[in-house]
Design goal:
Elements lengths: L7 H6 L6 H9 L1 H25 L4 H27 L12 H6 L8 H24 L5 H28 L2 H20 L1 E2 L8 E2 L3
Parallel strand pairs: 1-2
């Protein structure tokens, strides 16, 4: 078992912890957990690459997100290798409403669009890190070790997005924008969902 990474900054950043009802739901759906985790890694890499194409004028952004995209794809390869070793199929899954709902609040004009997109990335990475930490002690040895190994990188990705938002706007702008975005994220995490996903809320009726 790997030594746990300190994710205190992540826990202090988010507006709420993952509810126990979601953790129990995840343990009841181990295959969907892995499949949707793989999908999340692909989406994270795609998001970083899209930003690389859209904002070529920001060299700091290009450098950080290029590395982030490579790391997300490496994680995707690791998840699919675990799935293959367990004889799992890789079916298509519908996406949860989580990321789409978060992005509805992103401003449509620049530079607000970039700042809000980066903050959304920070929130998603922070929640992913927090959920890996919540699940790791409860999983089998292989997955526990793997999810624990992801904490350092996910925490770093959260900080990369947050620091880019501050550097490309200001700390004051970030502090003004974050509270409503985190409040929305909290509501998505605590509200019921009918289908389990890595970023879903609690089971319907929980």
């Amino acid at each position: 078992m790997r030594a746990a990474t300190d994710i205190t900054p992540v826990l202090e950043f988010l507006a709420c912890p993952t509810p126990e009802a979601w953790v129990e739901w995840a343990l009841e759906n181990p295959e969907i957990l892995l499949i949707d985790h793989a999908n999340c890694e692909k989406k994270a890499a795609s998001t970083a690459l899209n930003l690389l194409y859209r904002y070529v004028e920001h060299y700091t952004l290009l450098n950080r997100l290029s590395r982030l995209a490579r790391e997300e794809l490496r994680h995707f390869e690791q998840v699919t290798a675990i799935m293959k070793s367990r004889g799992m199929a890789y079916p298509q899954l519908s996406a949860s409403r989580y990321a789409g709902e978060l992005r509805k609040g992103v401003r449509t004009h620049e530079p607000g669009r970039l700042v809000d997109t980066l903050l959304t990335g920070a929130i998603i990475e922070a929640r992913s890190c927090e959920r890996f930490a919540a699940l790791a002690p409860l999983l089998d040895d292989q997955l526990s070790d793997f999810y624990t190994s992801l904490l350092k990188s996910e925490s770093r990705h959260f900080l990369d997005y947050l620091r880019l938002a501050e550097q490309l706007s200001s700390r004051e702008e970030v502090e003004r924008r974050l509270p409503p975005m985190l409040a929305l994220e909290k509501s998505l995490i605590e509200q019921p969902d009918t289908e389990f996903r890595f970023h879903s809320g609690v089971p319907g009726g929980a």
